[in-house]
Design brief:
single chain, about 65% helix, mainly alpha
């Protein structure tokens, strides 16, 4: 049966989602809900698109790694369930 593989896959995905959500709450990602609707109205021409800080670059690399790891895990579960499961 496929159930143990998919239940494990769903449990891992749910755990990762909860961990990322808690991380976002602790870092204040949802703190200022009212600011977002006024962003298109701001006229700030002197805002420079400077280089990303070192930590920001590491976060970007980590997000790409997590995305590709998730896609790889999905592909591995799919391939395993198609070829090796009875």
């Amino acid at each position: 049966m496929y159930f143990p593989y998919f239940i494990t896959y769903i449990a891992i995905g749910l755990t990762i989602s909860i961990v990322v959500f808690i991380w976002a709450l602790k870092n204040g990602q949802f703190r200022d809900q009212q600011r977002a609707r006024f962003l298109p109205l701001e006229d700030d021409p002197d805002r420079s698109t400077g280089r990303a800080s070192r930590i920001s670059r590491y976060e970007i690399y980590a997000l790409f790694f997590l995305a590709f790891a998730g896609l790889g895990a999905s592909a591995a579960v799919l391939i395993y369930s198609l070829f090796y499961a009875p």
